[in-house]
Design a protein that fits this description.
The structure is a single chain. The chain has 102 residues and is an alpha+beta fold. It is built from three helices and four strands. The protein is globular.
Length: 102
């Protein structure tokens, strides 16, 4: 079964619900969460502070999973019904592993 890297982008307001939704996916062994700054020409969704700063504080989550788990993740996240879209992209993995110390 091929594996993929799923990268999700979301707001701080969405963070707790997304973390809970990902933690509830049985076949998901874990994920990585990053605080990021999002930049956009469409600043209509930015609050005043973000408009002055020119960026929006956001989060990104990275998940490595197979097709079946990705389907479960999407179903779990779809139930959240956020007002703002939850953006993601998928990258096929050609290789992954662990480098052990000698």
């Amino acid at each position: 079964m091929s594996e993929r890297l799923i990268k999700l982008y979301f707001t701080g307001e969405q963070r707790p619900d997304i973390v809970d939704a990902l933690m509830q996916v049985d076949n998901l062994s874990g994920f990585t969460l990053y605080a990021i700054e999002g930049f956009s020409h469409r600043q209509d969704r930015f609050d005043l502070d973000e408009q002055i700063r020119g960026s929006r504080s956001m989060y990104s989550a990275e998940v490595i999973c197979n097709d079946k788990t990705f389907t479960e993740i999407k179903a779990s996240l779809k139930k959240l019904n956020f007002n703002e879209p939850l953006r993601y992209y998928v990258t096929e993995l050609s290789e992954q592993g662990c480098i052990e110390a000698n």
